Amino acid sequence: MDNTESSSAGTPTSWCHPAHRVHRFFALLLMCFLCFGSYFCYDTPGALADNFKGDSHLNTSQFALLYSIYSWPNVVLCFIGGYLIDRYFGVRLGTVIYMSILFTGAILFALGVYINKFWLMILGRFVFGIGGESLQVAVNNYVVLWFKGKELNMVFGLQLSFSRFGSTVNFWVMEPIYHWVANYYGGYERLGVTLFIASMTCLGSLLCGLILGFMDYRAEKILERSEQHSNEPPFRMRDILNFKTVYWLLSIICVAYYVAIFPFIALGKLFFERKFDFNPQEANTVNSMVYFLSAALSPFFGILIDKTGRNVMWVILSIITTIGSHFLLAFTFVNPYVGVMSLGVSYSLLASGLWPLVAMIVPESQLGTAYGICQAVQNLGLATVIILAGVVVDKYGYLMLEMFFLGCLFIALIAAVLIYIVDSANSGVLNLSPQEREALKTATIQTDERANLLDHESSDPDEEARPSEDERDSVLTQSDRIRSRYISHILPNTNIPDRP
Predict the structure, then answer these.
(1) Its pTM surpasses 0.85
(2) At what angle do helices 367-395 and 398-425 cross, to 10 degrees?
(3) d(CA 135, CA 141)
(4) Gyration radius from the chain CA atoms
(5) DSSP state for residue 10 in the 8-state scheme
(6) Which residues does the annotated region (Disordered) include (predicted)?
(7) Is the dihedral of CA 343, 347, 348, 350 positive or negative?
(8) What tens digit of pLDDT does each residue of 355-396 get?
(9) 487: DSSP letter
(10) What angle is formed at CA 345 by the lines to CA 339 and CA 351, rounded to 5 degrees?
(11) Scanning 84, 231, 321, 349, which has the fewest C-beta atoms within 10 Å of its C-beta?
């Protein structure tokens, strides 16, 4: 370590040092903007739904396919993408590759709209989807690598906030951009040019990925992260069989909860126009409130969960609140801002509490694959549900669609309650407060030290007083039991020193 960058006590004094809080803040800023372009371009069809129907002459089922085709490749590929990060690419190369694929898909989609070829639109969204979800897996790995420990919930919330801000900005600016482009182009060409402009946000995210990759490479050398992980066994595909029951219940929530969020937003503009008689810009504004509130509140919810713990409790509360939000939108004519704002609050709370749970129950060497599986099953649900949603809207209307969303949310609620029961029955840590986790950490250290002491004593042939076989087995069993409670995954990451 360079003496000019650290004091004699090991505390970094230069902001250029990877452990310095200014340096880490800049890395966090780049992580936040990595997904900005992806989320911005993902919802461009939703922000321009009327224009797709008017300029490109798409019906609701064809329009829904633009979202569905994004999700289909990720039923498999985001899982494979996570595996490739863990086993071959590494997080730096993986991020650049997936971001490049995503940018290519955005350009192809815009080109398809510009020449009014539906097959090319579908191909572009397909390629865009290949990169989009795999990129999210890579970003999750970056967040855990740099901020694992007491900051993790807050950082996940902040990263989600900036990502969702991309979707919010999309709903705010796409209509004005479209009308500005209409001064120079007509028909489907003006829609295509509008999408070309939107795709430039993906290019900006790619540049952020390149800069962050250089910073992470430098941090690995200075902090000697590669040496610290050299003794860890490589991930093997069969290790998936060892994932805990709680992890698979989390995957169920990823499917059942998010299919009641993203398909609703994709079709929300037309919903607000028809039920509440809003004009297109008003419908876009109220539809964007889910993402806007998520962007504004996620960092604060992350800090709240960092301070209070109780992740599972917050997840259950957020699902219940989401059920109430959809109930208001489906069965009442209360101002839709009430239901949508409640939906945005509950959505941001769930995301801040749910995703860090994966890092608590899965070893770091398997995180890419674990997050990839979550994304894969989530996209399987989204790919099928959004096609079904388009058919339901065309044949039965939005009320039946809301009934379906409510059913999915009740499944998510059951899975969350089961997580609480299973984790509590196994004396787990997922719903503990930070103080309780620290106490459990201390107890684990003391138990391990006692077990090691007994090992040394039992190997000394001259020692007169030896513990009985039953006592020794009891202590070792207790040690093994406690060590298996995910402790190593909730303690601060020793690869990066704490902030000064």
Answers:
(1) no
(2) 150
(3) 10
(4) 25
(5) S
(6) 452-479
(7) positive
(8) 778 877 877 667 767 777 787 788 788 878 888 887 888 788
(9) G
(10) 130
(11) 231
